[in-house]
Amino acid sequence: MESAAREADRPLRQFEYRGFSDLFAYWQDVRNGMPVPALKDFDLLRLQHLLPDILISEVRSAADIHLRFVGTAIVERFGYDPTGRNSLLNQREDMRDTVGRWYSMLVNQPCGALSAYKNIYSSGREAVAECLFLPLRTAEWPCFVSLVRLTEILNWQTVSPLTITAANILDLEWIDLGFGIPAASQSAI
Question: What is the pLDDT of residues 114-140, one digit of tens each?
């Protein structure tokens, strides 16, 4: 644990998007000497400028990723409020096992991740999103915070009752927080 905590104390990672750097810096600040910060110490109001695009998810199992908090901009893009739902229900059916396994690795390793993917919103709008994922600890369920930003608006698809997140995964980069990263064979896109 001590070497992992030292590794996580290394200089802050720089991201192209300042919001990711802000989230990562705050995540580091609230660790309070622990390898992973506690959710109870993670004050979302300190990230007010990012709050509309933040999610907090509980990993209840690799098949149940419970959306605990969903920012208002995400709700608006979705066209409905998915808070309290299993986020895997917003994945293509053939991707649910893979994405659930990734989320489990994120909190169990623990490690961070930066991903780019296409979403198809219930409005029919298709967009490329980029997301930073960082683990948090709780007494009940392991969880993670994520910050989403749209990077490109693409085509329009058929209007649907459900938003499909990560309809196509374009990239996934694991971030070593001092505990290593999942093996390449576990995380292939």
Answer: 999 999 999 999 999 999 999 999 989
Identify the pLDDT of residue 160: 86
CA separation for the pair 50, 26 (Å, rounded): 12
The span from the CA of 26 to the CA of 37, in Å, is 10
Beta bridge partners of 112: 175
The b/e string for 133-155 (b: 16+ C-beta within 10 A; e otherwise) is: bbbbbeeebbbbbbbbeeeeeee
Q: Cβ atoms within 10 A of the Cβ of 24, count?
A: 21
How does DSSP classify residue 14? Answer: P
Length of the chain: 189
The mean pLDDT value for 18-42 works out to 95
